[in-house]
Every structure is written in structure tokens, then in C-alpha cells.
Amino acid sequence: MIPSEQGGRQNSFTFLRLMLAMMVLFGHAYILGGFGADPLTTWSLGQTSANELAVQGFFILSGFLLSQSLANQPSLVRFAVRRFFRIMPAFWANLLVCALVIVPALFAYLCPGELTYRESITAGPCNALGFIFNNAFLYIRQWNIMPLFLHNAHPFAVNGSLWSLFYEALCYAVLALAAGAGWLHRRVFVLVAFAVLFVPCAIYVFWHFPSLRPTTPLCTILDFAFHPAGTRIALAFVAGVAAYRLTGGKVAWNGKHFLLCLFLLALSGTFGGFGIVWPFAWTYVLLSLAYRLPFGKLDRLGDVSYGVYLYAFVIQQCLYTLGGHRLGIALYVLVSAVLSVALGALSWVLVEKPAIALGQAVLKVRWRRATVCFSNPCPPRTSPSWTP
Prior knowledge:
The structure is a single chain. Strands 1-2 form a two-stranded antiparallel ribbon. It is globular and about 65 Å long. The protein has 14 helices and 2 strands, in the order ββαααααααααααααα. It is mostly helical.
């Protein structure tokens, strides 16, 4: 789990992550509810959107905080165990809830008495059980559970938000490899990595070179993570890592710099060049707010942002199927936000918090065994301890 305090100083990272999850929900509401483009997309003339900017914000914060985590505790085993227990149990629980609870409930509502529970999760080639097994290792290979959501405004996915988790895990793996090789401690290496990812985005502002055709998983990964026409999450993650290396994790508040960054974001969003500005300005705005906003006590209530992110998309798809979009965008957003926070809170209490505690217990057991082994070394064995 990402710590809520850094160097004894209270921060608002938990609050910011929740706000970013709400930004994703807000942006998706326009897409999934059939309301057209969200206000940020319209204002920026398609340069960005609410959900895209929020996802980039998530990756910026992750890059910053995980660099801090590796600096404070450079054990790659600890890093891997903590990341696994933070992401995977809640992700698997989401797959199970979507496939084994939400899908049968929708079938029972839409086709009362026509399908048994077993038929509702096994019927057809793109069924609910396939949704679980095909997506169990983060890379999403099955988006639909037919015929659900076929007539929705966005009929192509049960839970489109899950796409980013594979790329998040990929960033974690690359960061761990860089730390293991000793590159993470070299400021020059981090800045060069940022420059390599930033230059294509700067060029793309003036020349829209084509994307790769998503015919293979590798092309899809390159388009989403690296291509300037995609979400550019690799650049966002490295921006967070670079910010940590440049500041040592000590981001000082400067009101003039903060206002300047907001002005540059607004100016580039209105007149163009947003792709050049956001890696610097958006990173500075988020990290400044993390240490300036007075919401550090929110950590005591738990971090529900991950659960909100996991469940908001499928909730909004269900609301559309049930006619919730007819209430208008304001109520559609409000209802989906309330339900998402409720499920996010349940995810935190029932899955995420116990999983984090289990991860800590695993690390403690491993540490105790290592301590015993070093203090009481076992005598060398001359013969195998097993019998055939």
C-alpha cells in the first residue's frame, strides 16, 4: 500500500486519488451515457478529456510514490509482494462480482424466468466464466459478455476501466528492473528516459504521425502506453519518477509556480500545445496539491479510490441498461458516483484492506525465517532429505 505519510509530513495523496477516480467517472459518464463529449474534451478541442487526464494523474502519482517506496525500502521482493496484494485481490474480486453477481442479476431482470443461474454465466461463447478466466492475468482479452449492453451507447465493454491495470503492472515491473540495475538512483538516466518519451509527444503537436495497427498485443501496448495519440501513460509514470528524483520527495509549495502551471494548462488547452505542457504543469499541480490540501486525515477512513475506479464503469453500463441515462447527465453522474463510492468502500473493507494485511503478514513470515536462518545456520546436507 502506498503510504499516507512521507517523512513525517501529512499529505493528501489519498484524497487526490479519489478525486482522480471521480474525474474518470465523470468523463466516462458522457461516453457511456450517450451525452457526447465531456466539457474538457470540448474545451480543449479534443486534446485531452477528463478521464484521460485523470488516468495520467494516477500514473504520475504512482511514479512519484513508488520511487519513494523503493528509495526508502529498496527490497524488490517487498516491492513485488506489496504491489501484488494491493492490485490483484481487488481485481480478481471485481471480475467475480461482475461475472457471478451483476451479470446474472441483469439477466434475471431483463429476461425473468428464461435462464437459470448456471445458464446465465455459461451460455454462449462470450460468457461470464470466460470473462473471468480470459482476463485473470490483467491483460484484458474478453471485453463483452454477450448479449449484455449490446444496445448501450458504448456496447463494447463490460468494464472498460480494467485496461489500465495491465499497463500499471508493466510500469511497476520496469521500475523494479531499473531499481535492481541501479539506474533509478541515477538522475541522468531518469531524465533521459523522460526526454525519450516526451519528444514524440512534442513532435505530435505539430505533426500527427500515424498510430500502429492494433493487430497484436505488442502494437496495442505501444499505442496505449507510448504513442502520443494514446493515453501516454508511460510518459506520465516517468514524469512522476523524474519529479521524485529531482525533488528527493520534498515538493515545496510555491503559489506563483502553481498559478503559472494552471495558466499554462488553460492556455495550451484553449490555443493548442497541451501535449507539450501537461507532462510538466499537470505533474507540478498534482504534487503541489498533495502537500498543500488539508485532507491528510482521510487516510483514516481508508483508500476507496481503487474500488471506485474498478466498479464505476460497470455501474454506469448497468444504469444505462436500466434507463438511468434518461434522468440527464447530472443525475446520471450523481447516482453512479454514490453507487461507485459504496462499492469502493465495500471493496476496501472486505478485500483490499485484508489483502494488504495478508501481504504484510507474508513479508513478516519471510523476514522471520531469514532471521532464523542467519542466526542458526543449518548444517550442510550430504544426502537428499527426500525419498523416491
